[in-house]
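Support request from a user on the community tier.

User writes: "When I paste my structure tokens into the form, the page sometimes reloads and wipes my input. The last time it worked, I copied everything first. Here is what I submitted, just in case something in the input itself triggers the reload:"
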């Protein structure tokens, strides 16, 4: 007889976890309050192993260990920036490596998490894109970045994580099978408010529509980078499959679904997408879907000799947007001293902090 694969506790939505545990304990003639005990250990006390669940009898802990899996990534590397930004490199069970970043400010602690190992989208300005796609993460692997980071933050007196952004490695809307449960688990299991969670995408239209349909008010960030379809195509290959007009229609649906906030991310690359003529066109798009605009200086990557736009140009660009009634923020970069290997994780997280601050 072959054994059924142990069930991954961290990938289950809270309702599913309760149902599975009820079934498990009923089969062992255990009282039903055992389920509540385990659920509390998982979501509130962030237990990383069955042995920690000391209010359960040892025989029950053993039975749980053979029926369920509770696996956590191991900390491969951690780097702390002078400005307080903390980057983790996590090693998953099969050896795949993913990054997450903690960004403290005076009032917030934002966590940036990865949704895939690598990314298949091939955006030309993005280090992860150049690295190619390795594999999808499971919901549990997405959620475990939060669990492990929260424990790290608590142990190092950084306080509680207040916001989560899906802006690490990967395109979350190209991994919707894991994204949707991960959102539910963070929101309903770990009690992170939907409006404190932002999903960032390059424009995967079916995924945007699915998020529009969800009842929760998760936030959406569109990595726009150009209001011009032809120029955008050179930066983001997905533009060929889902051109801007189609993406904008999907964003309109998202905006009209009510109570949902959209941010445009605009990475400013010198001489590539920072012409002042583009600003009014960007403003029109932002007004159409009530988007907040973040302007982020490009982070140089090893694969292209592009440079960030001049700060004076970025300020001029921002003024044009403001003049047209668009809410805009110019972002600096955080964690510059620790982020050499990953060309993308720092800027867009700092950017999102401001969007959340303005939007809540
Ligand atoms: N795949 C999703 C989420 C991960 S990328 C997305 O693209 O939206 C998160 C953000 O980092 C995106 O806005 C992306 O455009 C930005 N980014 C990627 N490379 C960058 C770079 N070299 N400099 C600045 N921002 C970058
Ligand atoms: Fe993937 Fe986002 Fe990078 Fe594009 S910008 S390659 S979608 S991670």
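"...and here is what came back when it finally went through:"
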């Amino acid at each position: 007889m072959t054994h059924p694969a142990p069930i991954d506790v961290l990938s289950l939505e809270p309702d599913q976890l309760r149902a599975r545990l009820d079934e498990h304990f009923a089969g062992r003639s255990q009282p039903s309050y055992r389920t509540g005990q385990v659920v509390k250990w998982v979501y509130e006390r962030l237990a990383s192993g069955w042995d920690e669940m000391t209010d359960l009898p040892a025989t029950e802990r053993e039975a749980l260990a053979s029926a369920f899996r509770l696996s956590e990534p191991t900390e491969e590397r951690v780097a702390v920036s002078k400005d307080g930004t903390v980057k983790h490199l996590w090693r998953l069970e099969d050896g795949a490596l993913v990054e997450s970043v903690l960004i403290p400010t005076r009032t917030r602690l934002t966590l940036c998490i990865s949704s895939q190992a690598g990314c298949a989208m091939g955006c030309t300005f993005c280090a992860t894109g150049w690295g190619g796609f390795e594999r999808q993460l499971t919901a549990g692997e997405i959620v475990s970045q939060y669990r492990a980071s929260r424990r790290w933050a608590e142990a190092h007196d950084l306080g509680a994580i207040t916001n989560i952004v899906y802006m690490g490695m990967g395109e979350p809307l190209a991994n919707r099978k894991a994204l949707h449960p991960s959102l539910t688990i963070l929101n309903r299991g770990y009690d992170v408010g939907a409006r404190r969670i932002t999903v960032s995408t390059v424009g995967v239209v079916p995924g945007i529509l699915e998020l529009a349909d969800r009842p929760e008010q998760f936030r959406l960030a569109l990595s726009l980078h150009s209001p011009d379809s032809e120029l955008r195509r050179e930066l983001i290959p997905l533009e060929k499959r889902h051109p801007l007009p189609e993406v904008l229609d999907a964003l309109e649906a998202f905006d009209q679904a009510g109570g949902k906030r959209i941010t445009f991310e605009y990475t400013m690359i010198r001489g590539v997408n920072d012409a002042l003529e583009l600003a009014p066109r960007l403003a029109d798009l932002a007004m159409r879907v009530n988007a907040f605009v973040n302007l982020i200086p490009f982070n140089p990557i090893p694969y292209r000799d592009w440079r960030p736009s001049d700060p004076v140009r970025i300020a001029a660009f921002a003024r044009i947007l403001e003049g047209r009634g668009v809410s805009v923020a110019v972002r600096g970069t955080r964690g510059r001293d620790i982020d050499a290997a990953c060309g993308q994780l720092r800027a867009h997280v700092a950017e999102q902090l401001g969007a959340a601050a303005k939007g809540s």
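Agent notes: The reload is a front-end session timeout and is unrelated to the input. The domain at 74-351 is CATH 3.20.20.70 (TIM Barrel). The longest strand covers residues 97-104. Escalated to web team.
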